[in-house]
Write a structure and sequence with these properties.
The structure is a homotetramer.
Chain A (H helix, E strand, L loop, with lengths): L1 E4 L5 H13 L3 E6 L4 E6 L16 E5 L19 E3 L2 E3 L5 E5 L6 H14 L3 E3 L17 H14 L3 E4 L6 H7 L2 E4 L7 H8 L5 E4 L6 H13 L5 E5 L17 H8 L4 E3 L1 H5 L2 H13 L4 E5 L17 H17 L5
Parallel strand pairs in A: 7-8, 7-14, 8-9, 9-10, 10-11, 11-12, 12-13, 13-14
Antiparallel strand pairs in A: 1-3, 1-4, 2-3, 5-6
Helix pairs in contact in A: 2-3, 2-10, 5-6, 9-10
Chain lengths: 337, 337, 337, 337
Amino acid sequence: MIIVFKPEASEQDIEHLVDRLRSLGLRSQISRGEERIVVGVIGDERVLQGQPLSVFPGVESVTPILAPWKMVSREFQKQDSVIDIGGVQVGGNRVVVMAGPCAVEKLEITVGIAQSVARSGARILRGGAYKPRTSPYSFQGLGQEGLEFLTAARKETGLPVVSEILDARDLGYFLEHADVIQIGARNMQNFELLKEVGSYDKPVLLKRGLSATIKEFLLSAEYIMSRGNQNVMLCERGIRTFESHYRNTLDLTAIPALQELTHLPVIVDPSHATGKWNLVAPMAKAAVAAGADGLLIEVHSDPECALCDGEESLKPSRFHDLMLDLQKVARAVGRDM
Amino acid sequence: MIIVFKPEASEQDIEHLVDRLRSLGLRSQISRGEERIVVGVIGDERVLQGQPLSVFPGVESVTPILAPWKMVSREFQKQDSVIDIGGVQVGGNRVVVMAGPCAVEKLEITVGIAQSVARSGARILRGGAYKPRTSPYSFQGLGQEGLEFLTAARKETGLPVVSEILDARDLGYFLEHADVIQIGARNMQNFELLKEVGSYDKPVLLKRGLSATIKEFLLSAEYIMSRGNQNVMLCERGIRTFESHYRNTLDLTAIPALQELTHLPVIVDPSHATGKWNLVAPMAKAAVAAGADGLLIEVHSDPECALCDGEESLKPSRFHDLMLDLQKVARAVGRDM
Amino acid sequence: MIIVFKPEASEQDIEHLVDRLRSLGLRSQISRGEERIVVGVIGDERVLQGQPLSVFPGVESVTPILAPWKMVSREFQKQDSVIDIGGVQVGGNRVVVMAGPCAVEKLEITVGIAQSVARSGARILRGGAYKPRTSPYSFQGLGQEGLEFLTAARKETGLPVVSEILDARDLGYFLEHADVIQIGARNMQNFELLKEVGSYDKPVLLKRGLSATIKEFLLSAEYIMSRGNQNVMLCERGIRTFESHYRNTLDLTAIPALQELTHLPVIVDPSHATGKWNLVAPMAKAAVAAGADGLLIEVHSDPECALCDGEESLKPSRFHDLMLDLQKVARAVGRDM
Amino acid sequence: MIIVFKPEASEQDIEHLVDRLRSLGLRSQISRGEERIVVGVIGDERVLQGQPLSVFPGVESVTPILAPWKMVSREFQKQDSVIDIGGVQVGGNRVVVMAGPCAVEKLEITVGIAQSVARSGARILRGGAYKPRTSPYSFQGLGQEGLEFLTAARKETGLPVVSEILDARDLGYFLEHADVIQIGARNMQNFELLKEVGSYDKPVLLKRGLSATIKEFLLSAEYIMSRGNQNVMLCERGIRTFESHYRNTLDLTAIPALQELTHLPVIVDPSHATGKWNLVAPMAKAAVAAGADGLLIEVHSDPECALCDGEESLKPSRFHDLMLDLQKVARAVGRDM
């Protein structure tokens, strides 16, 4: 931690702060420059997290030196984490595609889509049983029945299942049916839910909040890991900006930036990010070219009648073509698919 | 709903859409302009919510005519809602100040701050027992013990208590101790929690999400009201923008904009919005001048040692001076305080 | 400047940087903490502006200690700047209202509006002769003729005139006709124009760019002041955010934040910020309550027929009522009007 | 244009608006739905641009049906525009890389970098002679001398030159030396400059403003084209968002979105977008995978000593490796390079 004092700060102000640091077990190094006095904190600055040093008299600014996270960081673990999901490895050289309907609607439709995406090369089935909808008057998902349909689709296809959880109270049933627990963008800072899923070892797909910084994103992953669950995947799915021509702005720069900071795999969801099916393919290719470890793509056999997010769903034939294109891009950047 | 077709759309495309509308019980009015064909939907367009009309062949754009909410709207209820909180009316002519510490820490400190803010004219005590913290390594709140301290402070001062809930599983205990349930910014779209608090009639203070639009904010309030709870207050607390000189950007334009759209009271939290104690007073005055029905202000007797958000907490003497200033501003805009 | 090294940085990396600093005339203080080595730069860190220290091998982060501006800062000049505009003082205790049409259209309309706003208490006349319009097919302003109409209105009313300049080539004619040169939001970083107006002593009203940070805003003012023109007023006029229910988000927190950092007067334009006439009055009152030194308000005698921004223009009678209300708010916060 | 009336609007309100439309030469179609009365405008709605219909009594909302631009649109010209720059075609199947230093500094360095990027496969040389710098105390570019160095580099390498112009008064000299006029992000809405470059036929590289919407971006291109210059290239270079871990957020979704709306080529600048050299390569690959027609990349032989943006400059050897990788990605998406 570096603390800069205002030019008008008194010696007493500096002593007052140094005393406080000492009482917290930290030492100080005072540096008197030409225009400012600067105090460097020596010791574990993490004990200062949440300490309001900026309100101390005379303080102009406070700058941390260390990142506020630990277990998620590359410094803590040099090599990439590889997460095993029912035999499918995420985080290795192979780019993994997770595909399926936004919401689970009917048994046959779910199984049909699962079979179709499996044939095209998807390795994991996605599907929502609990749906967080902006309006209370929109379809809210089938709940437990939806999970059962997904289980049936897994039985038919062998694809492990990723599905979103909204409420810690559903976790028991959920753990029996899903292979990956998805924490949606709206729940990225639902800390009670993070703590809860952190106490199991079931893989977690953590989506970045709509306006979450890279820092907040990693701290939410740290919530899960610090409770013991090391199987965390990060998912960029578009952030909120001023641009309204597409639903969100897909932040692909987050891929290499995260890969520098953390050892966790980075997945990209071009479907929710763009909100328009015809933008999904170019963004999926871009994500792979930028180094994504996986993709989450919505596929529906009848988008016109989908109960949720039909606008962004690919028809199976379009998904099939996209998978062929993605293999070429993956190969071009030295990855398998 | 107004559906515009692309210039290259065929008659078949138009028929296909009109058929779909008919199957949903809606009629269509087709208008052939010089450059575009436009279909107007006649009937209750709310049945179209979530229908992906934009994926229908030939469709260029889809524009709703009606707001997606109902119970929160001025159209539904012309007169202002006035919420009664243990005898304190929020939403009437009187501007109500809710003040107290960010986090409840110790019994004596809590009671002391409560007595102090009561003397200065605050009508409701705020204090956090469950704290949503960005980092897992920050103080997470006292939980049930915190609620008990707040209850003790209420007994001493007569001030009703507003406190934040993070987890529906805590609601039982919570309802016995708090007079207002606060839903924090991070939980504005925790729809399961909204549904849950919607099933009681305990007043709810719903904070706007960090990047929530006015529309999403009102739809979250609609979640609560549509479950039966009519006692909802909206709270603007700063939105996330590119500006990082202050924690968030306080969006005061939301006050008159919301008051045009909804009958619910609008509260402003200048403390969390700015994140700096010296910006709280001017923003509190601005909020009252813009027409806010209430304020939520953090006060701490020893900000340097506060376990949470000491940076933005006012000392009791500064809060006292601010209350005197706020009374003048309230009077200048025709409000009591 | 504080330079933090990565844990894996070598002694050679540190020497390499220290050498570079030395060659720039700066000394270094090396501090070896438990987890990081930190180098503090001693000397005038402004010589480091634009130096890409972060690309030096082993460097993890670079944090400046001093603000990058000089003449605009409170540190450089403690007391508030007061700008004289034809006898009207901006920056003193009196809140100054500048009002008039968005665009100058016809002589009689311009004079009529000027007389009306003068009667209501406005002290400066605003009006656009050169209009920066998003679309090339929108009305682009009357140019020189518009400036002549403004001059005629000044003759009739005695109100000094503020008008926007778009092109340095118009400056000669402009200086003869306008009392204040307005630099619009879109030109806040048109540095050639800033340098040009900086070489006169005509007062400048510098509007904040749509997505300009406080830091960039002050550096643009520094461009003007560093060329010799000390008569700069800053104008907050709304920033671009994700919220689209109003045109921009008026950032009133910028008022006290700027007043802490700089001695220059701060003006607020609630008309362009909101883009809706019915939101102008509450935001104008809020701006005064937050400490604004002046307001810029659009008034038009026939908004339905205005050639520019009729949506946000107040009718003269509404402006008159607003001025009465503003006087009360100004008095409540200890200001004259 | 679709105009929706409030439920409380009177017949007189509707007549008043219809009269106004008639006086502008437009016909109206009135549709009386169950909850709202809607007026559709028949005729060329472009005459309504800038008309403040929303202030007419009783009006609830106004929605345009047509895009506000004309010449830039796909509807106006179906096939892709291909711009010829001294024999290099931009907008065809071949992805064109423009590379060089951020700022031109010295003759030998400029020529050396030009030779190096030419060898690696760049087809156009970029280099700044006039530099728009946030701070007045940063290096402002060499001006005319810089243009001469670029001309010398062109003579040595045969590479056409793209350079930024800041001031219309420099245009004469500029036209003699540069092959492409770059309009920087800060000048995207410097409409006088757009009009000026629109009156020549020299190719223009128009960069997207930091917070410009797709709509504003296209309207700025329309400014240039409506003056006669058809040789416009669009350049995405990152937008401003809340995320500050990288300089800007590169909005790659703009590539397919623009290609749907316009026939103009789309270039991407990953260097300015990210501001960090180690993020440039993944983002360059992602841009090509997403369908970009070209790239603008900063290369410097000695980034540590670069006078501008050394942080984001690639060393020649890294640029060389990147070009090899880009060729693979281009081929994977069916493009040449």
